[in-house]
Amino acid sequence: MSETLASPAQNVLEMIGNTPMLKVNNMDTGPCELFLKLENQNPGGSIKDRMALEMVEAAERDGKLKPGGTILEATAGNTGLGLALVASQKGYKCILVIPDKMSEDKIFHLRALGAECIITRSDVSKGHPDYYADMVARMAKEIPNSFHVDQFSNPANPYAHETTTAPEIWEQMGGKVDAVVAGVGSGGTITGLARFFNKVSPGTEIILADPEGSVLAEAVKTGTPATEVGSWVVEGIGEDYIPDNYEIKTTTKAYTIDDSEALAVVRELLIKEGIIAGSSSGTLIGAALRYCREQTTPKRVVTFVADTGNKYLSKIFNDYWLRDQGFIERKSTGDLMDIISRRHSEHAVVTCLPTDTIEIAFGRLKLYGISQLPVLSDKGDLAGLIGERHIIKATAGVKGSFALPVADAMDGTPPTVPLSTSPGEVVEILKEGTAVLVNDADGFHGLITRVDMINYISRS
Question: The domain containing residue 93 runs over which residues?
Fold first, then answer.
């Protein structure tokens, strides 16, 4: 079947918006139909591309941003990516202040776009000198020819969603939308949606999805923000105060979704619907699913895949990270297997052979970002350990040394204990070394690093 294809975009900024809508088919939505607005299809990978472009172009129109200027903003990630994308296309310098819980993948992406990233603390609140929004406000006074975007108060932020995101939803849904579920980072998305739907469809419910620890859900329910602020893993939504751009009275209902539920929903979404989404999407979709399942009559509900999960592969789609953070529980074995993060029986340990070259071992250390490798014989027996210090000792000043076999550089008698060893004994060994290999008559089980032990102590 032939179809008319859109003409080529003249630049990447023309590709922002007009994202597809997808019906959820394989998750439990109760009596309702749930639809996902795929904002991960924007060129910067998130819904924030929309308001980034609008805020920059509004500043250009108002004369606040001049040629050769610097864009400044405090961001948990996606707004920064949108601004960095726009800055790169329009020829501006971009400096971003980022809380330290942001995924490393996003930071790599920002720097690759040419943005300067300043990392600050995520454990402080508004009013603290290291709080990311307060820090960038100070910088705006110090850097000449700069424009502080201030997404939390900038009226172009909600305007972008009122004039693009919401009308697209209305058209794609054929004018039948019973509820829209959104989160709040800066407040622009949910406010822009509410403004549009209050005009065209006053009966459409605007629902807040909020991470556990944020103060906003309590403010919706009682009119007063929660007094205790927690911490959460989900990035980009949730706040410790009510942003200026959030018109909270337009929100009809709120759901609090903890990190465990949000991350489980994201992984379920990938398996059942084939969509790889970011962490905040788990909060949004988790709240939308709760709303749908509570209904007694069919409703048409819309929420968002707010950004792509490709930015979170090292975190929420990494079983080892989830286990270290306590989001995945293993069945306890009652021995050192409870401490080993990467088990050899699960083919999770990176190893090498004694006959491999030092160059091969070094390549694996770099590829996997680790500092030591167990050395196993071709029969699978433990032969030793090779790490950075062994390679330095064997290769420094020795011509052609990287072609030598691992056997010439490895420690043939590394610290080794059986599974039955107590954690306390392992701690004493780790005070002197960086890793303990676990090996006994049943074979090699894995290694325990200092980080593994700290994670175990923290979980306990």
Answer: 48-148
